[in-house]
Hints:
The protein is mostly beta strands. It has a single domain, classed as YVTN repeat-like/Quinoprotein amine dehydrogenase (Methylamine Dehydrogenase, Chain H, 7 Propeller). It has helices at 2-10, 59-69, 343-346, and strands at 94-100, 105-111, 119-120, 130-135, 138-143, 148-152, 160-165, 180-187, 190-195, 200-204, 214-219, 237-243, 246-251, 254-255, 258-259, 264-269, 274-275, 288-289, 295-300, 306-310, 325-329, 341-342, 349-355, 360-368, 374-382, 391-398, 401-406, 412-416, 423-427, 446-452.
Amino acid sequence: MASRASLFTLTVAALSAGCFDDAALRPATDDLGVVDVPKNPLDVVDAGADVASPLDADLDAADADDAALDAPKDSAADADDAPDAAAPACALDRVLVTTSNFVSGGYALGRFAPTPSLAPSSVMAPDQDHVPVQSGCVIYNLLRGNDVLAVLDPTDLPNVARRIPLRTGSDAGARYQANPYDVYTYAPNKAYVVQYALPRIAVVDPSRDGAEAVLRSIDLSPVRSPDDRDASGSPEPTAIVRAGRHVFVALQNLNAFTPVTNGTLAVIDPATDTLLDIDGSTPAFDAVRLTGRNPVAMDVTRGGRLVVVESGVVVFTPPQMLDGGVEMIDPVTYRPSGFLVTEAQLGGDIKGLVMLDEARAWVVVTQLVAGGAASERVVELNLDAPMGSRIGATIVSTGSIGAIARDPSGNVWVLDRTTGRAGARVFNPLGMEVTTAPLSSGTYPPAGIAFVP
């Protein structure tokens, strides 16, 4: 188990849990754990996109771009063209944690307020590689190895109400044929499912059960990099958010786990379920070109600022290649800011992010040490601060972090997977720990988190 734990810790941005970009390399059993990072920030939950499982330019150029990003776009004001399920009408008052030990999976349930609590569930997960997402008041469990989008019963959590199969191949025994990675509910009868192993977004009706719930798909082939030549044909989409009128999908563009070009964001018009060419002046079909490689996490602030983490090349033994960073994308002009903070400045690979407000962020940073081990930190950033003062305090240091998420009350949950002290730790926005000891998730360490009705 020690080797598996080491592999889990180190595969933090290129692979994600079960994220094999070439079907031929996908193992029969999944030895890579689940490392979840923030997703769907418009869903009130900052938990969810996976980095490998979660998760350098001169910043002088980025400073010149800050002024253009200081007037954030109002997502709510731009949502007049269609329903926006991202602002839930339901009251979120509970927390759902998924657990995994690389072989078996389970759940824990609790409350995030007034006092954070967590209790293990006796229900076993149908897939050890599973990630919870609350989006538009719908509670999902992404059963990645089984290629199933499970819709959970909110009156009987964590039991499954409906199962939507995503696998299209004929080999019933193969796993990770679709590899659902993230989901965004646009309306009660329409959700977009990111499929890491396939070059398309599945459009599903979460109110239906079975294969008939898959309505159609959106082809990502037009924006796949020509340098990405692996057999899967997938541009390795990882995370999905809505900012303004459009839906954005992060594409890693990997070949055999290595990013072969800059990361990109595919842009979808949710009114028509069509992929947008963001630059009609070129002969190519253009996505948003990011500053760095291997995007592993996205978040959208309440004011509409789209923030992207790019983890770059991820190596598994020291020295690390610290070529990633954090940047903002204007969701109207599609203009990138350039790196506002770099991995070189942070001293490790960035694998996760949660925005506390329009400028303050907490990021998960992985640093490799001698022998291939890793240590992980949560570090505070202020993306609007002057150059040289954007990196703040270290909130917590530990061995392995499975997920980071902001609950509706404003506190931040950090899922600590470190052997001997695994559990959920909760911090207030000032960085003070609310929990006196990690909240136990039961037999298996915590892996993913969602805040649910």
